Every structure is written in C-alpha cells, then in structure tokens.
Amino acid sequence: MQPHEYAIIGHSRTNIGRTLGTIAGILATLAALAASTALHLAERLGWANGMPRVILFPLTASVFYPIGHLIFNKWIWRWDWVCSLLGIPNLSGTWDCIGQTDGGAGPGVNSQWSGILRITQTWEKIRVYLDAQGSSGSKSVSASLLNEPGRGFVLMYSYRNEPGISQKEMKPHIGYCEIVFEEDLSSAKGEYFNNKGRVTFGHMTLRRRKD
Length: 211
Known about the structure:
The protein is α+β, with helices and mostly antiparallel strands. The chain contains 3 helices and 10 strands, in the order ββαααββββββββ. It has an 8-stranded antiparallel barrel with strand order 3-4-5-6-7-8-9-10.
C-alpha cells in the first residue's frame, strides 16, 4: 500500500522547504567553522604534521538538507507542538468504523456495516485504507486536508474500492469521502458516495484506537 502526495490547504510546504534550506546552510557554515578551528588548533599543538590540507568530503548544505528533510518528513512534524504550529493533524493510526449505506442503487442499500480505517501519514504523503470486514476494501488515490477552527480537521479523499471474492453482486467502483475529525483527534464523522460501478451514498462514525 504505497502512500501518495496530499494537499494541505492553508499550509505552504515551500516555506518549510526554505526554512530547512536555511537551517542546512547554517549547519554547513558551523561545520566548516568547526573543521577550520580544529585544524588550526591541531597545527598549534603540533598534531597536524602529515595531515592532508584538503577535506575530502566537505559537509555542505547539499549534505545537511536531504538529511534534515528526511528527519522532518518522518518524525519531527509529528511532535505535538510542531503539529500545532503548522496546523497539520497527525491522523496516522487505526480507526474503528461503523457505517450506514443510506441510499442509492445496488446491493446493500439501507444497511449497516463496520470496518477498520487505517491511515499512514508523513508530512508529504498519506494513504487511507478501509477494510469493510472483508466484504470490500478501498484505497485512497488523492487527498487533501483542511483545518476549520471550531469544526475540526477535514480529510477529503477519493478512492478505489475492490469487493471481496465472496461479493458476487458488488462491482469495483470509485468514490469520494469527507471525514471531519474532532480537534482532539479521538473521533470523527464522515460521509461518502460511490459511482461508476456502485451508485450509493452513506455516512460513518470513527473512533481512534489507542496505541
């Protein structure tokens, strides 16, 4: 299940990239200064006899930036105060889901179902997978996030659904879903609709599993 890029409305990744680049430049300057100071000290103490005068692998910004970007993308952005500062919710985890197909055409209309929603998320990429108790499984193909003060965080995504092998009447289909997460990120409510293979719509409630 490979993650894909997602948009964060109101958040500029370009500004974060500039900040990471600036930090990388500062670290490169400090590293060069530290290397120069160490070499000068070694010369004064007589430890530099025979020491090469060329640093074969200089620590430049081009070295620090990808390392810093990797660390920020995977770990730093998850810190609570960083999430709060950037306005990005960390939705990663497992969510218990209860759904209700409210209407439309096809099998299973006006029926309740349950499943497990799994979200994997980094700063740059996300993936949403819903397993409806083996009857079908859906995978997100595009997504965006919106922070609405007083309402919560809104995850909007489109998906592809594949029915389980036992579902003879259900066909593969595509759909769209909007989930509104409470500000404490412990529960959520969502609405969805399907098309091109299964014309139905419904709603669902979610509760986050504790680690």
